[in-house]
C-alpha cells in the first residue's frame, strides 16, 4: 500500500514511524530540505522537496495511485486545499489535519463539501479523552467491553482485595481463566508482565470468557458510578484549553482558565462566556493559590511547554487534588514518568496517530479498536495468512513490554494465552498496546 504524508511535522513523523514496520511504501512531501534529508537517512522512505499546494507537484507524484494521503502542514487552509486537490486527482482516501475551532464547528460541512474523507485534530482528540475521564468517570462503556465470546471489565482492585499484593503469576493461579490485561496506576496505564504486582489504588482491566467475566462484573462493579466534578482549573488557553473549557462548562462545571497572553484572553472571554478567563502566569503558584487552587476537583495543564505542564501537575498532586491531567508531547519525558506522581499524562500525537492508524488498517485486519484512558488501545484483529504473529509460539515473538496478546477466540472457544500458545490462521486476537508503542503492533500485523 502506498501512503503519502504531506507536511512532515511531529504528527507526520509519528505516523511514519508507526507505519514503517508494516508493508507500506511511504512518501514524505515537505518544503524543508534539511528535515527531509535527515528523515531520508533515518527511514526507508521516498522524500519530495516541493510545495504540494502546486497542483502540478501532485500530478508529478501521480497522487491518484496512493491509497491514503495525510495532509498535515502548519496551515489548516493549505491542508484543506491540498486534500481537495488530491481527492480530485484520484487519491482513494485523504486525511486532513484541521485545528482551528472555527473550522471544527463546521466539521461535517467541510468534510462533505470538500470531499475530505477524514478530519483529524490532535487538540480535540486529547480534549475528548480528558473530558471522558473527568466528566464520565469511566474508560469502558459501562465498565464492560464485549466482542464475540470474549469480555473485558474494568474495576478497582479494592473490589477484589485478595488480588492486592499479588504478582501476575499469582493472579493467574487465583483466576486461571482470566488475565489482567492492563493496570491504571496513578493515572498511567501499564501493560503488566510477570514481575509486576497489583497495588492498592490500582484500576484493573481483566479479560476472559464472556460468562465468567460478566459474573465477576456483578461482584466488582461499582454501582451508581458518577462524577462529582464541580470545579476545574485549566492552565493554558491554547486550542486544547479552549476546547476543554467549552466542553466542561457545557457539562456544568465551574471552570477557571488561566492564560498568559492578554489578547488571547479577550478572544477566549468572547467565545466561552461561562468560563472565568484569568490573565496571568500559570506557573505563578501564589496566583493560583489566590484563585483557590486547593479547592479544585480537577487540574489540567495544557500549555505549549511540556516542562511547565509536568511541574505544575506535580505541584497540584502534592496539594492533594484528586484528578490531575497534563498534556505532554515529547516521548523522552513520557519515559521518565514511571516513578513520578504527576497524575495522568496524555500525548495528543499518540492519540491522533492511533486514530489514523485505525483508519488506515480499516476492516481488512482490524475488526474494532477502543482507546483506554487516552494512553493504550484494545485492538481486535483477524490473524490472516502470512502475518508475523503466525507460526511460532508467543514466546518466540519476543513481544515488546508495551504490547500484550490478551485473548484469542478460536472456533467458538476462548483461549487465555501463555508463552507456549500459537496463534492460528482465522483466530480473532485481542491485543493491548500502549499508544506510544503502536509501531510494534504494526510489525506484528505485517505480512511476511
Give me the count of strands: 22
How does the helix and strand content classify structurally?
A: alpha/beta
**Could you describe the largest sheet, including whether it forms a barrel?**
6 strands, parallel
Strand content: 25-35%
Helix run count = 17
Rough outline: globular
Task: Tell me the Rg in angstroms.
Answer: 23 Å
- Give, in spatial order, the strands making up the sheet with the most strands: 3-2-1-4-5-6
User: Helix amount, in percent?
Assistant: 25-40%
Mean pLDDT: 89
Low-confidence stretches: none
Query: Alpha-carbon distance between the termini?
Result: 14 Å
Overview of the molecule:
This protein is of the alpha/beta class and 448 residues long. Helix content is 35%, strand content 26%. It is built from 17 helices and 22 strands. The strands form 4 sheets. Strands 3-2-1-4-5-6 form a 6-stranded parallel sheet, with helices on both faces. Helix 7 packs parallel to helix 10. It starts with a strand and ends with a helix. The mean pLDDT is 89.
Main features:
six-stranded parallel β-sheet; 17 helices; 448 residues; alpha/beta; 26% strand
Summed up:
The protein is an alpha/beta fold.
How would you summarize the topology of this molecule?
Elements: E1 2-6, H1 10-19, E2 25-30, H2 33-42, E3 46-49, H3 55-60, E4 68-71, H4 76-88, E5 93-97, H5 101-104, H6 107-113, E6 118-120, H7 122-136, E7 144-147, E8 150-156, H8 168-174, E9 178-185, E10 188-190, E11 203-209, H9 210-220, E12 231-235, H10 239-251, E13 254-259, H11 262-271, E14 276-279, H12 285-290, E15 298-301, H13 306-318, E16 323-327, H14 331-334, E17 344-346, H15 348-365, E18 366-372, E19 376-382, H16 394-397, E20 403-410, E21 413-415, E22 428-434, H17 438-445
Parallel strand pairs: 1-2, 1-4, 2-3, 4-5, 5-6, 12-13, 12-15, 13-14, 15-16, 16-17
Antiparallel strand pairs: 7-8, 8-11, 9-10, 9-11, 18-19, 19-22, 20-21, 20-22
